[in-house]
Structure formats: structure tokens, C-alpha cells
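Internal ticket #5521
Category: modeling
Description: The requester needs a full-assembly model to guide mutagenesis choices. All entity lines are attached below as received. Residue total reported by intake: 800.
Assigned to: D.W.
Attached entities:
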Amino acid sequence: MSKEKILDAGQHLFAEKGFEGTSVRALAQAAGVNIAMISYYFGNKESLFEAIVERKTAYTRQRLEEVSHQTTASPVEKLDFVIDYYVDLILSNRKFHLMLYRELTLAQRKDFHDHILDILQKNWRELQGILLEGQDKKSFKQDIDTDMVIMTVFGVINQCSQTGILRKLIDKQDVADQEQEVRKRLKQYLKDLFHAYLLV
Amino acid sequence: MSKEKILDAGQHLFAEKGFEGTSVRALAQAAGVNIAMISYYFGNKESLFEAIVERKTAYTRQRLEEVSHQTTASPVEKLDFVIDYYVDLILSNRKFHLMLYRELTLAQRKDFHDHILDILQKNWRELQGILLEGQDKKSFKQDIDTDMVIMTVFGVINQCSQTGILRKLIDKQDVADQEQEVRKRLKQYLKDLFHAYLLV
Amino acid sequence: MSKEKILDAGQHLFAEKGFEGTSVRALAQAAGVNIAMISYYFGNKESLFEAIVERKTAYTRQRLEEVSHQTTASPVEKLDFVIDYYVDLILSNRKFHLMLYRELTLAQRKDFHDHILDILQKNWRELQGILLEGQDKKSFKQDIDTDMVIMTVFGVINQCSQTGILRKLIDKQDVADQEQEVRKRLKQYLKDLFHAYLLV
Amino acid sequence: MSKEKILDAGQHLFAEKGFEGTSVRALAQAAGVNIAMISYYFGNKESLFEAIVERKTAYTRQRLEEVSHQTTASPVEKLDFVIDYYVDLILSNRKFHLMLYRELTLAQRKDFHDHILDILQKNWRELQGILLEGQDKKSFKQDIDTDMVIMTVFGVINQCSQTGILRKLIDKQDVADQEQEVRKRLKQYLKDLFHAYLLV
DNA sequence: AATGAATGAGCCTTCATTCAT
DNA sequence: AATGAATGAAGGCTCATTCAT
């Protein structure tokens, strides 16, 4: 009960304020539990952070595997699906993902960094599998840089999420519409881009 | 004299440890000045940070403007040049740029966030100018998403810089070679990608 | 069952880490019982400590009384026996005795201090009885300071046990031999010393 | 100024409550300075403790050396002087010395333990020098255990200081008289004891 | 222009103990 | 008889900043 409340509060607060910016006092207060419960359940703040990332990414990985291992869809269809999936995933959890990548760029806490990177790489391998399958089936070109394609998918989505620049480019409508507009545009763009680059 | 030393020390330390991770004590010690000098010259840590970013980006912007305003090159050539330029720029100052984007994603410090974003947008407008010029001259397609192309340039370079994943993918050679290999591969990929997407 | 396990764990842990240095959590873990059991059985940490000391000293006192009340031996023989006995006793339980005297010197916990001192004094009175008997029988000098002799017996043994200096003075042999060497030397010295001081 | 105040407050508080029992908050309050000044001047609580011991023992060592190196006195006179000196020294700073020996028996903090022991051993060597000189000059017996004599001097004084038992043995007079009585009796006893044991 | 001392708030963690079951 | 969850206080320490000189 308290454990869940701490995880929930942590997911929200870490996303909002970052690791350093979130004090255990604030965590305990937001979770409505005593400050000592963080140590009691998780040992320390760092381990709580890892537990939150673990919970979040485990769910994501599971969902992703289900999708990418299905055999009925073509590589292009799978790629399009993954694009849609990741755009929605990242933009629906903007602050959390931003925070994750932010902490990832801090050379401090090397062990944690490697741990998270391993988890993310598992997901990246799924995408790589689709690209290689497409090359095998001759539906994608042979001289493409698959690593870079993966970098592009996450790089573009993160960049949009990060800078929030599109909010400035489209300022005619209200916030909710903007959000939908950005997602739609992002999905369309990535598909167009990769169809132009990948397809034979 | 002391002021310069503080700026230099700050540029290095903030890049290495981030804003939160850099203490005023560490700054003073690294600069070889008294701890009170930071407040004396810059008021507080945040303002020192802004001064450092200002100094760094001003230099970059100046260099970029010189390049993009030249009239002899074609849009494609200009695009290719900007790609080369940014890959070298960001990868040559990896830690600083990572830190910059990291701090940018923290909702805290809103004013600072907007200030930095304004600076970066100036540079982005240069790139946008090239894309629009290409459309004008009918050398680029008409139905392209120019905002997204900009997001892609920075997104992909940052993603490579950020995760350092390529270091894992190419581990046959020594570090210096890897660095060159990554840059070369990144430049080639981005050109191939945009030529496929942009050119009529 | 749990109570015994706690007492055993406490005797070992308090000897090793001292009163302050032993946490209730560590006690519970070492005893393999729930943390709340310490409060359940003993009320609080302090009372547990007293219970342990009580158990330990009661056993010692019983052994000592058996010995000192025997009537066949002369005062000198009795004294020699007590010296042998105490050297072995204290050096065989070095850490426990060190801890006991250590806690005794803390002005805090006055009640506990007095309680322990009463117990120890009972044993001291046995030794004093021997000395007075020796004076009565004219085998010891009349102008000796019996209180100080008692202080000397315990003071010297404790000092050796405490500083572990003899380990540094005799470093030719292995640890087990050192231990035996120290005991032998200590017994011989104390007998020589008191024979010189006490005997008529 | 603050540094001195912290050292003074520390000397008093550590003697009174021990290392663990003295909080940095209490130290700061007793010294009338801000809590951060302990870190500012000494780094941490442990280093403050070492600084205090250093200051105290340095003064003692200096005094002792002056005395033991004088050439006019005989070995017996020197021994008697050292006995008088140490009885006064330890009983005048009872709580401090008790605390010192107490902390010395804690296996925790091994480095600190060794450091203090080294300092104390320097003083012990002075006493050992006197005993060896006495043997050289044939005024002391040849078959004495000099290490044990040293253990005895400190052991007996510490034991008296520690248990405070004499307070119970002599309870006819007021406290100040007791103190003097104990010192006088202790000095006399130690001289009698060693004269009996050492002299040819 | 520059300093070292000083501040007070805040950090994370651990403590002995008690509660509800 | 026994438990795991929960408590609130206190622990040592570091922080950015300011003061007096």
C-alpha cells in the first residue's frame, strides 16, 4: 500500500523535478507516508529511482515484444506500427522520458546509467530486428544504416518532446489540439522519411 | 582576470557534472579564486551559468551566420555543409551540448529555459531558411515538413552523442578512430536520408 | 527460544560493537527474530543489555565463590589462584570485558553504572577477604593498601587486554602463541609483584 | 576564534559524553557557532576529535619529555616523579582520559585507534627508558618485566579513575578532600609497590 | 577587487520504538 | 507468541549565499 504510493509519487516527482531536484522529504509528503518509509522499502533514493524505472520499462518492453513478434504483418507495417507506438508512448509520458534521458546523460552514477541503457537497448533490438527482416525480404534497401535509423526514431521524437518547439510553431489552437496535431504530424513525417530512405 | 577564470572553469565543470552537480565551492576551487567571487561577479550560480551559455552560443551563432548567408552555394550544398558543420560542432563539444539539452528539459528555471531556446531558435531559423530556399528554387519537394527536418538534424546528432551507443556497436577500433568513424557515418547517413526525403 | 537467541546475539554483538554501535535491527537480524521482539521481551535496548550482563556476571560470580571459600589453601595460594583465574577469565572474554568497562566509564546511564558496579564489587570483596585473612594470619604485611591491590589486579589485566600493546612487543610468534605468552607473563608478573609487596 | 571555541567545546563534550554521544549540533551549540563551522574547520566530526586529542597529548608529551630527559635525578627519583606526574595528570583530567581509553577499545575506527596508540606509546617509551636506565645503573633488579611495570602504572591509575570505587571506600569526607586523599594514597601505593618490586 | 569566516536551511539516512493484526 | 508496517526524531554533512574587513 505505502510501497505503491511511494512508487507512484516517485514516478510523478522524478519526472517533474529530476532525480537531484526531488528530495526524499518531498517524496514522502507527496506519497503521504513517513519519510523513513523510503529507506524501509527501497533502501535509498537511488534504489527507489531504479525500481520506478524498472516498473515503467518492464511494462513497455512487454507491450513492445507482443507487437514486434507477430508474424502476420509485413516489415513496413511493423515499422509503421512501431513509429505510431513510440510517438504515442513517449509523448504520453513526456516528462518521464525526458527525465530518463536527462539522467542518462549524467556521467555520474555510472552503474545506474549502464543498467538503464541495457534495458533501453533491449527495446532497440526489437526495432533492429524489424529492419533486418525487411532487408532479408528484399522490401528494404541493402545499403541502409540500421543503427542510425534507430537513432533517428528516438532522436526525433525526443527532440520534439524535449524542446517543445512545436508549441511555438503551432500556436493557433488550444493545448489539447496541439498535442494531437504534433503526434499526427510526427507520425506522418517519420513514415514519409523512412519510406523514402528505406523502400527499394 | 578572475572573471574569465570563473567562466572557463564553469564551462568545463558544468559540462562535466551538470548544473546541480557543480557546487560553488568546486567552481571557486577549479578557477583558483575565492568562493565569494562567484556571487561578486555574477550574483548567483544561475546567472553564471547563463553567462557561460551566452558566451558559448554567441560564438557558435556568429560562425553559423557567416556560413549560411553565402550566396554561391546551392541549397543542397548548403544543407550538406550545415550537416557537416553541426555534426562536428556537437560531437566536438559533446559534454557541453549534452548538458545544455539536459538543463533545457528541466521545467524548473522557466525563464532560463526560454532564454536558451530563443538563442537556439535563431540558429534553427538559418537552417529553415535553407530549406525554404530549396523549395523556392524547386530543388526540394513542396510537401515536406521543414520543422521536422530541423528536429531530425539535431535529434539524431544529439541521440548519437547522448547514448554513446555507437561506441558499443563499433568496438573493434580504438577510441580516436571510433570518434572519427561515428562522425563520418553520421554525416553520410544524414545526407542520404535527406536526399531521399527532400530531393524532387 | 527467541529470548535465548536474542541474549546470545546480544552478548556477541555488544562485545564486538559496543552498546551505541549495536542497533536493534542488527540484534534482531543476528538473532534471526523480528525486530519488535527486543521490545517485546526486554522492553528496550538498555534492559536487554542489563539482562546480558546479569547472565554473564552471575555465572562468573558463582565460579569465583566456589573457589575463594575453600579452606584448605593458604592466603598466598588463594591469591595466586585468583590471579590465575582472573587472567584467564578476562583474557578469554576480552571483548566482553572491554565493553563492560567501556560502558562503565560513561557517566550517562547512571543507574546502570551503579548496578554493574555493585555486581563487580561483590567479586572484589572476595579478593579483599583473602587479603585480610592473610593479614590476620600474619603472612601478609600489616601496612598494605588492600583496596589498591584489588585495583592493581584488575587494572593491570584490563590495561593489557585494552591496549593490546603486548602484541606489538612480542611479534616473533604467531597469534595463538602470543596469547599464551601474554597470559603466562601476566600471571608470573602479578605473583612476583605482590609477593614482593605483600609478604612479610 | 570559532576554531578555538569548537576545540574547547569538543574537549569538554567528548570527555563528558564520548564520541558517539556527542552530536555535531551539540558541539556547535556548546561552542556558540553555526553547525556548518565544524565541517568548515575540521572536515568532519572524526577529524575534530583527532585534532582535540592531538592538541591535548602534544602538550602532555612535551611536559613529559622535559622531565624525563633531565640528568641530575636518579632512576628512582625519576620514577617517583613520573608516578606523581601521571597521577595528577590523569586524575585532573579524569573524564578526558577515561573517554580516550574508552574510544581506544572500540575496534571500529581502526586508523584512529592506531594513531592514538602511537602517540601514547611515545610517552610509554619515556617511562621504559627510565626503567632500563635503572637496570643499567644496577639500582633496579635485572629480572623485572618492564613492559608490565608500564602497564601497571597506567592500569592502576585508570582503574581508580574508572571505577570511582574509592569514592565508595572513603565516604566520610567531602568531595574535594576525597580527591586529594585518593591522589595521595595512589602515589604512596605505587611508590611502595615498585620500590618493593624493582629495588635490589 | 578580494577575502575568509559565518550563516541557516536543507540534504539523505538511520535510529529505537510502537502500532495493528 | 509473533509480525511487518509505520513513526518521528535525530543523526552527520553540504549547500549557496552573505557579511565584515
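Resolution: model delivered.
Comment from assignee: Chain D has a mean pLDDT of 86.
Ticket closed.
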